[in-house]
Amino acid sequence: DYELHLLESAQVPDEELSDAMRFRIKDMLATPIEDMVIQATRLPADAYRGRLDMAFVSAVRRDYVRNLVDWCQRYELELQAISIPEFTLLQLVAGQLPEQSVALLRLDAHDGALYVYYDGALYLVRPLAIGYADLQQVTAPGEFALETDSQLDRLSLELQRSMDFYESQIGMGSIGQVWVL
Q: Terminal CA-to-CA distance of the chain, rounded, Å?
């Protein structure tokens, strides 16, 4: 329903960032920019060791947002906000007040993602091409078991690469906790 891109940030005040980033993202989208709602969120200044000013830019079709709003109005629901999972999960993590970086591993059936949060901010999003169903052995119905084969090794390698990238490229030190969702 949406796209999320990590791009070099425009050198504008935060309140103008979303409008400025429309120009940077327009050629990356399959849908014309006029039909999209764009929201940009700047990474904290300490990301990338202060060398780069980066922002997450989300893009969603305007008609999709309109349909959500219409649905809420039809059922007389009070709409508070529309958010994407990466930032909704940020609120979950921040609510726990962790003192260290938290990597949240989301596993769906055949894919997933790794999100890294620290001090109330999202620093890293990495899609994964492996999910919980890929880790299951064929066992008795209703039982779950992890295989000790290449799928688990592949997931471990992806996690290690992400943690290494966070430490070396983003420059934020080691990840203190890994949560599985």
A: 20
